[in-house]
Amino acid sequence: MDERRVIESFLSGGTEEAFCALFEVAWPRVRRYFLLRGLDAMTAEDLAQNVLFIAYQRAGEVREKDLFYGWLFAVARNELMRYWRRHQSRVGAPLFEPVSAELADSLTVEPDVMRDSHLQEWLTYLEPAERDLVVLRFVEELSYEELALALAIPLGTVKWRIFNAKKKLSQIIRASFPESITKRIN
Amino acid sequence: MKHGISDQDWEGYVEDRLPAAERDRIEAHLIGCLGCWEFYEQMAATTERLREAGAATRRGIPLSDEQLHAGLRGVFERVRAGQPGHATQRGGRIEQRLRYLEAVMAPMCGAQTAANALRAAARGSAARSLDEVTTDNWEPFLRSLTSIAAVMCGETGAHLVWRSGQF
Question: How close, in Å, is residue A80 to chain B by CA atoms?
Fold first, then answer.
């Protein structure tokens, strides 16, 4: 069953079976969103479970089936903000203790294990709200309309903010891929 | 707005989401304006790179069936309890937390090294071995692991390990 039909089936019936099918397509996306917004895997999974639990309970609130992911990521953003508010003052700075010379000598770093994706690095140049936009647009492929719902901003503002984020990133991306841009212009 | 083209217009043009009349207006301008043409090329390339990076990120975050099933069980536990769970209340999920710390470190220093670091941290803390790490001796273990991570992954990596280890 394709994703659209899975969503329709859940929203029209709300059965456990329909929810399981929805969970399979939606939970990985919400989990990924939390990971890309800087949460560790375990917290990302916990919060994604909360989001899907809310979807299970409050699916009736979704007015337009085509904008389901806009609604779902609005719930996810709220969950993320609640989490950050709760944890802002709880986690102190780590204290680094000296590591013995013997232990330090035995620690080696394996090369070439970093992921071949630039997105994580690019996101660091953006404001938090812009990171949301870029992740939801280019990783989760939300439409402008879904983004407007997820971020609770007008459609025109979505387009304006996306383009501004692109402008910010264009120099950084050009530095990462100098030859490809030159090739395009020539 | 520059040369009568707003950021919203540019976004619509680059994404091919403009009505035909608007598109024609911008194209008529681009033919005679090298600066705008170069700007368009740059923004189109940026958009393309972001799409590619988005696709690579989708492929780069794997999810096992086991994780998916555990996630579904977690939701139904919440349904039974009638309330969302709290990420801060994990009780004795030490095994899971250790696995995640290993997963956090692996991309920075390699899977084998991450596993060794966890063992070394346990040996160097009150727990003395990984099997003996509990909620009671978690903090000294995490401090030890963070210190090791600072040597292997740098301070940023160590901060990540420290934060990831918080219950």
Answer: 11
pLDDT at B64: 86
> Can you give the residue range of the structural domain that contains B98?
92-164
Interface ipTM: 0.79
**Residue B153 placed within a domain:** yes
Statement: the pTM of the whole predicted model exceeds 0.80: no
List, as one string, the DSSP characters of chain A.
Answer: --HHHHHHHHHHH--HHHHHHHHHHHHHHHHHHHHHTT--HHHHHHHHHHHHHHHHHHGGG---GGGHHHHHHHHHHHHHHHHHHHHTTT-----PPPPPHHHHHH--PPSS-S-S-SHHHHHTTS-HHHHHHHIIIIIS---HHHHHHHHT--HHHHHHHHHHHHHHHHHHHHHHSHHHHHHHH-
Query: Which residues 42-101 of B are in CB contact (within 8 Å) with A?
Result: 42-47, 49-51, 53-54, 56-58, 60-61, 63, 67-68, 70-72, 74-75, 78-79, 84-88, 96-97, 100
Residue B1 included in any domain: no
- pLDDT above 90 covers a percentage of chain B that reads 38
Domain count, chain A: 2
Please give the tally of structural domains in chain B. 2
Which domain does A148 fall in, by range? Answer: 120-186
Does the residue A68 lie in any domain? yes
